[in-house]
Amino acid sequence: MIRRHEPPTLVVIGTGSLARAVCVTLARTPAAQGPGQVHVLGRDSGRASSVCYLARAEAALCRVPRRFVPGELDSDDGLLRERLAAIRPGTVLVCASWHSPWERDRTPSAWTRVLDRCGFAATLPLQAAVALRVGRALQQAAPQAQLVNACYPDAVNPLLHRLGLPVVCGVGNGTLITASVETALGPAARRGLRVLAHHRHLHRPDHPDDEARVWLGNHELGGVGQLLAPQRGVPREALNPVTAHTVARLLTALHGGPELRTAVPGPQGLPGGYPARVTRRRVDLDLPYGLSLADAVGYNERLTSAEGVRIDRAGDVHFAPSVREALRPHLPQLCEGFRGSDTQWAAARMWQSAQVLRRREDPADAVHARGAGGRATGA
To answer: Residue 277 pairs with which residues in a beta bridge?
Structure first.
């Protein structure tokens, strides 16, 4: 258990752009709020040290006495459990996966062309692999800790929940969309704003009926697509500072800071994102009057299916026909879906196939990668 006189500790898994931005934002957060110290664990300990240096420097400039401690994300499950048991975190934030959302722009290849055909949902096993491993380690090493997942939580969190793992909610999609609506509506929206939004709403949906839903108080607003147009016009990676700020606010609320009303993806293992109230160690749904939980879940399940994946009550994963056909030539053993308990196996098979396809690069891919500032991979 976390002792009362000790400030809670946060563990950040990952050293990519989102993890870095979250740590820098936490470095500016007043010491009386949020975690007392932050451990950053990554596969590359040098990158973890770099993230912690940037956060420490920011904290020093802001006169915030928060500690940032780098460490290695152990590849051995036993060592990972020992590390987490020694840290005794209050919350663990997973920002690492086996597939980067920026790969399509940085290093296009035959693999990213397959994903263009079948959609982001096909990467579900790659998105879930790290969170699943960390969640299992937490169950044994730090059962008091709460798991918060930033990797495709709209679909990954239902999978984790049905496998019995302690995922409290996700971050990213719903929190970012809520911030964008609040920005468009102005200060008047800061009280009573409720947003029902899915990962799919990061982009304009094909049909107006599939747009995100927004309420002020219990009055549902129209024209949501116009409110979200400025956000959708910004490149995804450039949105990371805004996303990181929303993540830091949520983590601060979970660690006893000011109450936060926002929308979170995957709360309580539900699909998609929901309006919620975040307080110390609690995430409670905050649905508007007249919207039942069954209707909200049905809405998000429909959008998850439209992205190409469905997770049944047993935790098994089923791909849509379009995804199956796109994956079949490369992953015939996986294209029909997989059992939730086989997620690590599915991630390993998908990673192997992705590595083969990444080496099948044509000249057009190389030109695109250099133009986007990425590093083209060799044949």
So the answer is: 261, 284
Residue-wise pLDDT for 38-50, tens only, equals 999 999 999 999 9
H-type helices in 98-172, by residue range?
A: 103-106, 110-118, 124-141, 153-162
Q: How many domains does the chain have?
A: 2
Note whether residue 261 is domain-resident: yes
Last residue of a domain, one of 277, 301, 325: 301
Residues 158 and 182 in one domain: no
Residue 277 lies in a domain: yes
Dihedral Cα 134, 137, 143, 147, nearest 10 deg: 0
346 phi, psi to nearest 5 deg: -60, -40
Stated pTM of the model:
0.91
Asked if 69 and 114 sit in the same domain, the reply is: yes
Listed residues 145, 170, 195: the one ending a domain: 170
pLDDT tier for residue 374 given thresholds of 50, 70 and 90: very low
Residues 171, 92: contact at Cβ < 8 Å?
Answer: no
φ, ψ dihedrals at 158, nearest 5°: -60, -35
Residues 370, 359: Cα–Cα separation, whole Å: 16
Q: Are 158 and 132 in contact (CB under 8 A)?
A: no
Amino acid at 51: V
| pLDDT band (50, 70, 90) for residue 363 | very low
Domain enclosing residue 245, as ranges: 173-301
Rounded distance between C-alpha atoms, residue 37 and residue 91, angstroms: 11
